[in-house]
Amino acid sequence: MCELLGFSASRENDIRKYLTEFFSHGIQHPHGWGLMRENNSITEIIKKAECSAKSERISEIIAETQPQKNTLAHIRLATVGSIKNENCHPYTQTDNTGHCWTLIHNGTIYSGRQLMKYLYTQTGDTDSERISLALLDKINEKNPETPEQRFDIVDDFVISLSKRNKLNLIIYDGELLYVHQNMRDTLYYKSENDGIIFSTKPLDSGYWKPYPMTQLCAFRAGRKVFEGTKHGNIFVPALDYITETDAMNI
């Protein structure tokens, strides 16, 4: 299982202690790491197919990370896709209106015919990248003009893909941070200095709450601004025993 970290706040916060703890979990998730951070108003993506807990670069990256308003981080345990830089999260693309969408995923797609066509256009070979490509196509197809319209498109997309699939997602569109969980006890959150931090596992001894199940929510400047439909498509862990070949053929 991969691990996710997301952060949204109304002002810049020093989150280096959380990044340090998060990337130390790479011992159990050794196949890659990635970080989306804001650097002088520029969104920066850094990622590499190596164990974050053994990376010589991680300590340097964390030390030089400025206080953040919006951040995503990911460590990878490969289930679908080989071990290479192209398969590391986050995935990022820009839509037709200029919004830059960045996505991290913890899970596996077992039932996803709508994603199959992206096997031939993706850069790597993960199901997570296919989710990113499919979502961007949905956004470009609808051409949303408001944050509310963007949220509704993402909500419908998540609902359509959540049945029989493990779909823990954190997505950032340059304004909204979208968060979704459909496997119990695999995502938590904590309030932090005018912001909120999300993580697959609690990152300190503070008060972390389980994130709500099977409902997409969106956050802006550390506050929840939209709630989606409670779809009820809870992922059953036993499905993890399905092989990758089986997953591709469903």
Task: Please write out the topology.
Blueprint: E1 3-13, H1 16-24, E2 33-39, E3 42-48, H2 56-64, E4 68-75, E5 91-94, E6 100-106, H3 127-142, H4 147-162, E7 168-172, E8 177-180, E9 188-191, E10 195-199, E11 209-210, E12 217-220, E13 223-227, H5 244-249
Antiparallel strand pairs: 1-4, 1-10, 2-3, 2-4, 5-6, 6-7, 7-8, 8-12, 9-10, 9-11, 12-13
Helix pairs in contact: 1-2, 3-4
Fold and architecture overview:
Helices cover 22% and strands 29% of the residues. The chain has helices at 16-24, 56-64, 127-142, 147-162, 244-249; strands spanning 3-13, 33-39, 42-48, 68-75, 91-94, 100-106, 168-172, 177-180, 188-191, 195-199, 209-210, 217-220, 223-227. The strands form two sheets. Strands 3-2-4-1-10-9-11 form a seven-stranded antiparallel β-sheet, covered by helices on one side. The chain has a six-stranded antiparallel β-sheet with strand order 5-6-7-8-12-13, covered by helices on one side. Strand 9 and strand 10 (195-199) form a beta hairpin. Helix 1 runs antiparallel to helix 2 and helix 3 crosses helix 4. The chain is globular.
What overall form do the CA principal axes indicate? globular
Distance linking N and C termini:
21 Å
Pick out the low-confidence regions: 239-250
The strand order across the widest sheet is 3-2-4-1-10-9-11
Number of strands: 13
Radius of gyration: 17 Å
Tally of separate helices: 5
> What would you call the quaternary organization?
single chain
User: What is the mean predicted local confidence, pLDDT?
Assistant: 92
Strand residue percentage: 25-35%
SS content category? alpha+beta
Considering DSSP H and I runs of 4 or more, what fraction of the residues is helical? 10-25%
What does the largest sheet look like? 7 strands, antiparallel
What are the secondary-structure elements, in order, as H or E? Answer: EHEEHEEEHHEEEEEEEH
